[in-house]
Design brief:
three-stranded antiparallel sheet, alpha/beta, 278 residues, globular, 2 domains, 10 helices, six-stranded parallel sheet, Rossmann fold, 36% helix, Pantoate--beta-alanine Ligase, Chain: A,domain 2, binds adenosine monophosphate
Length: 278
């Protein structure tokens, strides 16, 4: 496994890699969720490139950029174990040199849900993913359903900018008690950690209601909200039942819907989601 820190070296080594090339962009502090994407990339490609880059542009000034968890040594050991060929680990000055001024935005799809609470977040995501795609030039790029809106936004960007690659979305990997794996879970205190599976419980409730014929989203949202509100440490940012492609809120579910939420425990913001009618 090679660790590459500059764009020039990454582009040079790219030419020598066996195709197809699978690519997994991450912010590091890896867990089984990330590794599931690497495993899929490994199974479906001849070469696997993983990037580790905590992208400042997707954090607001009030967010957790400086204390975002990092452990490069552990990440590299995990990636080596998975059979990764190249780890791209650029510095900020490499990705955003002095005077950097070019941004990629997806418009309407980034406005609701996460975009409503983190207005500059997706512009940072789409810009960095675009840059990484240009540098790595993968055939297949792997993203997690855990970040449902991000996956939709990147799929749309790749399609509408005629990018020559496939965006593949992989299922959410969870802890045994249902909590979606996330690098941010380490911030949770033991009490918060104990309470956090409430997110998944509310998603499962939505799924049960839907499978018993409930189609009215107000009824489903009320019962989901009640489950989370039972947890004194949890503060809901939003719970949404939306169209799986446009992310417009639904009053009635026809065939399918994306149920998604963001819940804060202290300063730690957890997101989770599930698709109904898949
Ligand atoms: P991050 O390092 O948080 O930017 O995540 C890198 C990639 O891993 C993104 O495509 C995430 O959606 C994906 N990911 C994060 N957590 C999970 C999880 N629990 N299950 C599946 N994919 C995940």
């Amino acid at each position: 496994m090679k660790i590459i820190e500059t764009i020039a070296e990454m582009k040079a080594i790219r030419i020598k890699l066996k195709e197809p090339i699978g690519f997994v962009p991450t912010m590091g502090y890896l867990h089984e969720g990330h590794l599931s994407l690497v495993g899929k990339a490994k199974a479906e490609n001849k070469s696997v490139v993983v990037s580790i880059y905590v992208n400042p542009a997707q954090f607001a000034p009030t967010e957790d950029l400086s204390k975002y968890p990092r452990n490069l040594k552990r990440d590299l050991a995990m990636l080596e174990q998975e059979g990764t060929d190249i780890v791209f680990f650029p510095a900020d000055k490499e990705m955003y040199p002095e005077g950097y001024d070019t941004w990629v935005t997806v418009d309407k799809l980034t406005k609701p849900l996460e975009g409503n609470f983190r207005p500059t977040h997706f512009r940072g995501v789409t810009t960095i993913v675009n840059k990484l795609f240009n540098i790595v030039q993968p055939d297949n790029a792997y993203f997690g359903q855990k970040d449902a809106q991000q996956a939709l936004v990147i799929k749309k960007m790749a399609k509408e900018l005629d990018m020559n690659l496939n965006v593949i979305v992989c299922p959410t990997v969870r802890e045994p008690d249902g909590l979606a794996m996330s690098s941010r879970n380490v911030y949770l205190t033991p009490e918060q950690r104990k309470s956090a599976p409430a997110l998944y419980k509310s998603l499962i409730l939505a799924k049960d209601l839907f499978s018993h014929g409930e189609r009215n989203t107000t009824n489903i949202l009320e019962q989901m909200t009640a489950i989370i509100q039972k947890e004194p440490l949890a503060n809901i940012d939003y719970i949404s039942i939306a169209d799986t492609e446009t992310l417009e809120e639904l009053h009635t579910i026809k065939k399918s819907a994306l149920v998604s939420m963001a819940v804060r425990y202290g300063n730690t913001r957890l997101i989770d989601n599930l698709i109904l009618g898949e």
